[in-house]
């Protein structure tokens, strides 16, 4: 099983009747293990919905989602919560750290929530990988935006998840800091074999991916391997993203 996530004919409709919005329309996609996949598309094309359905944060109206060998549609909310805590990691645009907790406490929070004892050696490695070994006692408010996102990435990695999902993980960062964070995400894929899937608006961010999926109007309309930012930007322009 080489796919970390497999979506088969996934549709998502919000609302009912005349007000219904089809956010995803029969999307079939494989997100390969040990790769960085970027999801791009114009505003409203369904990127967040795609990510939420792939991660078990939202339930498709029809179709199936498998995380590894686990079929998500057969799971109740309790089991989905457990799966989200143990098997997927999340990195958000707004970092979503707990201000009153130290860096180390923020990173180990998912373990405490799932009552798992931290593996000290792994925790040390994760903290070192994100470059925060000398900041573990600090609080988020004492860190730069880039450092806070590194804490969030460490928190996402600490459970050794099947997949790390990023929703605009560099959206709140300046260009240089964003590049550092993207390099770190790339390193987790190349150096740790992590699988990463991120939604982004930024062609430069997408160029760090192995593959870019392009969404338009709830459908995957194209994929691009070994993307460059210029090719991604040209494709987005053709999709009418920057009219
Ligand atoms: N909870 C909801 N209720 C109703 N409609 C929704 C809901 N969430 C999303 N939508 C609609 O579904 C469509 C896809 O939304 P989605 O947020 O997935 O797009 P997106 O590509 O992530 O957009 P953006 O780049 O602007 O964040 C949009 O038309 C949106 O208005």
UniProtKB/TrEMBL annotation:
SMART domains named among the record's database cross-references: AAA
Top-level lineage group: Bacteria
Domain annotation ABC transporter: ranges: 5-242
Key words of the record: ATP-binding, Nucleotide-binding, Transport
Gene Ontology terms for molecular function: ATP binding; ATP hydrolysis activity; transmembrane transporter activity
PROSITE patterns: ABC_TRANSPORTER_1 (PS00211), ABC_TRANSPORTER_2 (PS50893)
InterPro entries per the UniProt record, alphabetical: AAA+_ATPase, ABC_transporter-like_ATP-bd, ABC_transporter-like_CS, ABC_transpr_LolD-like, MacB-like_ATP-bd, P-loop_NTPase
Classification via CDD domains: ABC_MJ0796_LolCDE_FtsE
Protein's recorded name: Putative ABC transport system ATP-binding protein
